[in-house]
Every structure is written in structure tokens, then in C-alpha cells.
Amino acid sequence: MAKPAAASASLPKRWFLLLLVVFSASTAAVFLIRGAFDSCDLRREVADTQLVVSGAPVAGRREKSPLEFMRSKLVLLVSHELSLSGGPLLLMELAFLLRGVGSHVVWICNQRPSETNDVIYSLEHKMLERGVQVLSAKDQEAIDTAVKADLVVLNTAVAGKWLDPVLKEQVPQVLPKILWWIHEMRGHYFKVEFVKHLPFVAGAMIDSYTTAEYWKNRTRDRLGIRMPHTYVVHLGNSKELMEVAEDSVAKRILRDHVRESLGVRREDLLFAIINSVSRGKGQDLFLRSFHESLQLIRAKKLQVPSMHAVVVGSDMNVQTKFENELRDFVRKNEIEGHVHFVNKSLNVAPYLAAIDVLVQNSQARGECFGRITIEAMAFQLPVLGTAAGGTTEIVVDGSTGLLHPVGKEGVRTLAKNIVDLATHVERRLTMGRKGYERVKSMFMEHHMASRIAAVLKEVLRQ
């Protein structure tokens, strides 16, 4: 089995400095429709749900930020944790967008470990360097900020646990200015203790149509509460990531560097899954499909380059039972030379530059949205994804990628899709180009900023 790798050393200074600021918000959470869109108009009604989506800036001239109206406003961002998972990274991105237009931004983290680890230290300093004030979630200053703030953003359902224990009698005063940004699709988040105040906030913002519909039905049927005004906001790629994705020199440098660190050749085919390693993200089923694809290729005597599976998102310091299961599967099936485990990273751009196909294999209800999917498409990569959740809102089956069922029944289909893209180079490249075009028309930072701006204007009017 190849050694864990990380793209870091020996890059030219210019690109090394550039890539330090590129980060992704994909993983877990992080956070959908039963069809795909083919234009920039994302408006669609979800029963009683109010949708807000704005158009793109005019190409060819520098546009004023749609968030300019937030200048000098005080915004409190409440995160349930600070980690490399999708939810916290998305909230950080919102913090930086608001700071960019002159908002006063304060960050608190409700579930902070007693000891600061390297990840928390790095992320907190990243925020401080950008002018985001970081406070303790339970200090009086945090309470005072919530009372004075023009807007309070609760990030994820779990952040609701901060309200009663900290704000206490001031909860009713703060609720009317709360925008609740929800990324979760898992059933265990539907607890009254988390979301009992949800009907009384100014609005909820959800990353996909499918998730919005799911929350509306689940809160009504299981908890007996109504959702507030709900806004669906698709995410977009950061300017920093797009700058790397669109620079052929940068991509070639990163591709060569990462492949060398993994011990694979330039001509080898790399299929990667980039998510925090957990059963819900489907790394186990991906490896089963990959192993089956190797068997199909041998059985049919197909001529393809050497194929490799890359699992980005491990934590070598804390190998869970599930991670050990993955490694056991690799050893038992004697595919160590074809499978590579890579530690989770704030910067996924090097791996997107190095691979040939992204596999988005989130299980159950799928991803709420799946930021890594649009990031991969920016790098002109085809996507093999589960036909569930946000992936169906992003990937056009047969055009920008191929979809397969969730669960064990999807293993064989994914294996066949892997073989299909391995044996049809032109189809693989065409899907990548179409995915890039789709990102440019729908999933850029300015698209996301316009959508969020429309939501914030509505919430502030209330």
C-alpha cells in the first residue's frame, strides 16, 4: 500500500503561496433535486418553500459585490465546531465574503475542545488574519454581540444547542434576526433539543432543493413543527480555486508533484474519493467497486493504463474502526499497489489536479449539496456520483458524469462506470469539458454571493 501523501514540498514559490489560500468546503457535511438544471435560472418552487436565486454578473467588467449593503453591519456567526468538514468551512467562506465588503464579523464555536489542536489553531488564525473576531461561545461578550448584532447566522442544526444554555431569557430577543443555515441530511439531527426554535427564526437557508423538501416534511411529520421561510442557495467555487483550475501550468506542476508523491506514473488513471472517511461517505463501497472494476478489466482482457484508487480524507493519527476496515479490505484483496490513502487536507486543489475522475459516493440520502463535486468539475473532471441528494442537482447523468444507485446495489453499476470511463478516453474528456461549462454558468463564487445577498436582504427586511 502506498504511503500517505500530501502535496506540499518543492512547488515553485509562486504556486506554493497561491495554493496556501485555496481551500475547499466539501466533505462532510458538507453539505438537491431529482433532475439537473441546464441554465442559470435555478428558480423552482418547493411546496411552501420560498426560493431565492439571483442571476450572474455581466461578463467583461468588474462587478460591485452584491453584498455591499452589508457594509458596517454586525454579523455573528455561530458554528457548532471548527474543523475541516464542510459546514465550518462554508461558514468561514461567508465570513470572508462579508469581511470583503466591510462587515463587522464575529465568530463563536459552540463545541470547542478543551485543548486547541493544530486544525483549530490554523483555522482561527486564518480568520483573525482576515479580520474576523473570534470569541468564546459562552462569554458575556458573545451574548452582548448576539443582542446587538444586525444578523445572527446559526450554522447547521446542531448549533441550535447554543441558544438556550447561553442566551437564556434573551433568546426571544435574538430569534427574529437569526438566519439558520442548514447542511445536514442525516435523521439523527432531527431532535427537538436542536431545532425547537426553528419556526421562530427569520429564515432558514439550505444548500439544495431536495434537502429543503426533506426538512420541511421531516420537521412536520416527526417533530410537529413548521419550517420558517426557507431559501435554497446553491454553492459556488471560490475565485482562488478557479484561478488554479484554469491555469494549465499550475495544474501540470501540481499533477506531477502529487503523482510523484503517490508513486504513480503520468499515464496512470486515478479515480479519487475526497471526503472525510466515514461510512456515510461510502469509501468502503467505492473500494469494492474499484476492486470489481479491476476484475472486469482482467476478465475482458481490456487494454487500459494502470488504474489507482485514491482515498483523500483519512486521519492517520486517529484510525477509526471503519478506516481499519478499509485497509483490511485492500490487504485481503491484494490491491495495495492500486490504492492510496491520503490525510484530510484544507487544500484539495493539488489532488483535483492530479486525478482523472472524481467519485462522489455519499450514501443514504446523499450529499446535501457536495462542494467537492463542483470543485472537481472546475478542474474538468467527470464525476461518478450516487443518484441521491445534491449530486443530482449538479451532475447531468450521461453528460457531465454518470450516476449510480446508493447502497450495495450501486457497487456493480459504479464498477461498470469506472470501466466505461477507463476505456473511453474521449468520453471522459468530453464529460470533463461539459462539467466545466456547467460550473461557469451556475456554480461560481459570484453566483453564490448573489444568492446569499438576496437572502440576507430579505431576512434584514423582516
From TrEMBL:
What range(s) does the Glycosyl transferase family domain occupy?
258-437
Alphabetized InterPro entries for the sequence: Glyco_trans_1, Glyco_trans_4_5
Keywords, A to Z, come to: Glycosyltransferase, Transferase
Q: Does the keyword Glycosyltransferase apply?
A: yes
- List, alphabetically, the Pfam families matched: Glyco_trans_4_5, Glycos_transf_1
Question: What SUPFAM superfamilies does its record include?
Answer: UDP-Glycosyltransferase/glycogen phosphorylase
Recorded GO MF terms: glycosyltransferase activity
Name the domain of life: Eukaryota
* PANTHER family per UniProt: GLYCOSYLTRANSFERASE
Official protein name in the record = Glycosyl transferase family 1 domain-containing protein
Q: What is the lineage of its organism?
A: Eukaryota, Viridiplantae, Streptophyta, Embryophyta, Tracheophyta
